[in-house]
């Protein structure tokens, strides 16, 4: 930690709030620079650039200065990012653009998202695109090429490869199979009714 930050902690300088957070290793608590709690021993202080970083290292927010107040818990943050992906799946969404929009580093976003959702933001985007593609293939007669484009994958062979990897069959095969299944279902229900 540099002298500037240490001075801010000692003087409880509120102008540094949001610029950094500090944890006290002996208590496992993290604070805003302006916190009025007792000045810790310098050697025990650890500086964080954001609250998430402190939380990731298992520090708990101070009850007095509430350094997590106004900041979203990771679950909420990730849920917002996931719904943004679901809304903008057809656009060229990147990890960097999401990180910028949601005020976090790409690295932190990647890690936190994966920890909570189980897949990376990029994989989540692909899953969302393929899920929408499946809907379009079953509910519309749009050519496969148009479906690919509509879900944000302009390259048809790229789309087919992704689709195959996730669904286990090509888009065309998927559509044929589905139409076949619907026809079968209709046949059966007619039989049952009669
Ligand atoms: Zn505090």
UniProtKB/TrEMBL annotation:
Quote any Pfam family the record assigns: HTH_18
Q: Which residues form the HTH araC/xylS-type domain?
A: 79-177
Query: Which keywords appear in this protein's UniProt record, sorted alphabetically?
Result: Activator, DNA damage, DNA repair, DNA-binding, Metal-binding, Methyltransferase, Transcription, Transcription regulation, Transferase, Zinc
Q: Tell me the cofactors it needs.
A: Zn(2+)
InterPro entries for the chain:
Ada-like_dom_sf, Ada_DNA_repair_Zn-bd, Homeodomain-like_sf, HTH_AraC, HTH_AraC-typ_CS, Me-P-triester_DNA_alkyl-Trfase
Q: Give one GO molecular function term.
A: DNA-binding transcription factor activity
Q: What stretch or stretches form a coiled coil here?
A: none
In which domain of life is the source organism classified? Bacteria
Q: Name one GO biological process term.
A: methylation
Check the record and name the PROSITE patterns matching this protein: HTH_ARAC_FAMILY_1 (PS00041), HTH_ARAC_FAMILY_2 (PS01124)
Q: What is this protein called?
A: Helix-turn-helix domain-containing protein
């Amino acid at each position: 930690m540099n002298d500037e930050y240490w001075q801010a902690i000692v003087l409880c300088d509120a102008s540094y709030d949001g610029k950094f957070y500090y944890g006290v290793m002996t208590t496992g608590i993290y604070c805003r620079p302006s916190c009025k709690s007792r000045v810790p021993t310098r050697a025990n202080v650890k500086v964080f650039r954001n609250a998430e970083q402190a939380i990731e290292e298992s520090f708990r927010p101070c009850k007095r200065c509430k350094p997590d107040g106004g900041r979203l818990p990771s679950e909420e943050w990730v849920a917002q990012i996931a719904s943004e992906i679901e809304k903008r799946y057809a656009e060229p969404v990147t990890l960097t653009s999401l990180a910028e929009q949601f005020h976090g580093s790409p690295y932190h976003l990647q890690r936190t998202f994966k920890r909570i959702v189980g897949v990376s933001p990029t994989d989540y985007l692909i899953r969302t695109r393929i899920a929408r593609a499946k809907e379009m293939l079953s509910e519309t007669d749009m050519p496969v090429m148009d479906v690919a484009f509509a879900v944000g994958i302009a390259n048809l062979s790229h789309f087919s490869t992704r689709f195959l990897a996730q669904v286990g069959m090509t888009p065309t095969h998927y559509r044929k199979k589905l139409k076949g299944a619907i026809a079968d279902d209709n046949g059966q229900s007619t039989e049952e009714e009669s």
